[in-house]
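REVIEWER CHECKLIST
Item 1: Sequence provided? yes
Item 2: Single chain? yes
Item 3: Sequence as submitted:
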Amino acid sequence: MITSIATTDATVTDAEMSEPVHHMLAARDLLPAEHFLDSGYASAELIVGMKKNFGVTLVTPVLLNSSPQARAGAGFDRTAFTIDWDKRQATCPRGDTSTWWSPATLRGTKAIVIKFDKETCRPCPVRDQCTRSKTGGRTLSLQPRELQEVLDHARSSRPTSSGAPSTQPARASREPSTVRHEGARYE
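Item 4: Structure as written out by the authors:
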């Protein structure tokens, strides 16, 4: 069912149109409880913003975890670590805790950088599954809590072909929610 049509320049991204489309739907009392979107929309900020501003749950594949461990499908990616947001501490798969937690800005985005002591990591028997650093300890980069938790949930709740929730990040998009034809955008 088509509930909204918006025409834009081709340079306008799907994500940029999400808020205007939701305003149009809200004006006509047509906001859905869940809005299924393709991966052109996905970001933790957008998922959180649409829930806060419109009460709409975006169901969309999110970007892959880009750590070397996640890309290789081997070793300990970020999901192997337990994050204690209240204590501002992470625990590695072998039970060691981080020694440094600091807010930062990475490539213009707010983040939290977590470090493990090199003296703890250097003798670790599974070090090569955890970090490529030859001298330092493991470092994790997270988004601020609310965004990271939404991202983790979106990655872990994506159903598999068996219907069970996936423990892997989304690799392919769902049915597109937008069809483009000669510059028009249909949603």
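Item 5: Key structural point noted by reviewer: Residues 48 and 134 are 38 Å apart (CA to CA).
Item 6: Recommendation: ____
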